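2024-03-11 09:14:02 DEBUG pipeline.ingest accepted 1 chain
2024-03-11 09:14:02 DEBUG pipeline.ingest length=171
2024-03-11 09:14:03 DEBUG pipeline.predict start
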Amino acid sequence: MLSRTIISLFRSTEGSAIVESAVVLPMLFSLVLGVYEFSWFYYKQQLVETGVRDAARYLARSSAGASDANPCNNATAVANAKYIATNTNYSATNGAISGGTARVPTWTTAAVTITCPAIDNSSGSYVGGTTLHLVTVSTSFADPALGFFGFLKLPTPNISASHSERSIGPG
């Protein structure tokens, strides 16, 4: 009698769908959330790259004086470039940029680095003065808003970007 009951339980197909769902659902759930998290990270990376590029272009065009002047010597232009990198929909008033919304909420101007190394052009290889400047805007920061990484106890990835433009001065 006991062996007949065991055999009938072994051959029974009732409830097999719930067992299969219990096995597959956690893997499917992780896969869907992983795809969502990756797309969110990629979207934020693109926002940061766009901001860094915009800041480099702004600073390359806004130099105080001649095209061979160092744009990093203009503190207002550097501050504006950092603000442009981290914000969008801003407005300019009397040379200062303000307002707008953050591109990535956890990205601040403190994480933006701007350098303007000099390039010797005494041989005249490039159009311009004897000294040219390359504007390089870069950033790297961890975005704690990426929650699935924390849920899985993975380290939060850094979002980083860099862009360089040759300083051409005001147009």
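2024-03-11 09:14:41 DEBUG pipeline.report The chain is about 45% helix and 20% strand.
2024-03-11 09:14:41 DEBUG pipeline.predict end
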